UniProtKB/TrEMBL annotation:
Residues 21-108 form the SnoaL-like domain. Pfam families: SnoaL_2. SUPFAM superfamilies: NTF2-like. InterPro entries: NTF2-like_dom_sf, SnoaL-like. This is SnoaL-like protein.
Length: 117
């Protein structure tokens, strides 16, 4: 992967993308068809489950956008620190994604989320 930061900006932007076609295109670009997403709420597999999860994020935080804080890459792994929130509180939610890639597509994504109090 030439630019891990740009790659993860695309992943983070996908979660709050409102255009269904653009969101699916971003999912297909960044994720393997059998990709697994794991967070404290469960284990999701495949494009449909990832798309559904994206919808749940938009429902919980309708005006929120992700801000990439930092990205580090090593071998087939990328770690990204991020914030999520509306324009007036961009750090409402904070967290870290840890992605394992194969041929520049995510096969496993572990999301560590610090929910707002």
């Amino acid at each position: 992967m030439d630019d891990p930061e740009q790659f993860m900006r695309g992943v983070l932007g996908m979660w709050t993308q409102t255009d269904a076609k653009a969101r699916l295109a971003a999912i297909e670009e960044h994720f393997d068809p059998g990709a697994r997403l794991r967070d404290e709420n469960g284990d999701l597999v495949g494009y449909g489950a990832i798309d559904d999860y994206s919808g749940s994020l938009r429902n919980r935080y309708p005006d929120a956008r992700f801000t990439l804080v930092s990205t580090d890459a090593m071998a087939d792994a990328v770690r990204t620190i991020w914030t999520l929130g509306p324009p007036d509180r961009p750090d409402l939610v904070t967290g870290m994604d840890f992605a394992i890639l194969d041929h520049d597509r995510i096969t496993r994504l572990y999301a560590f989320v610090d929910e707002p109090e």
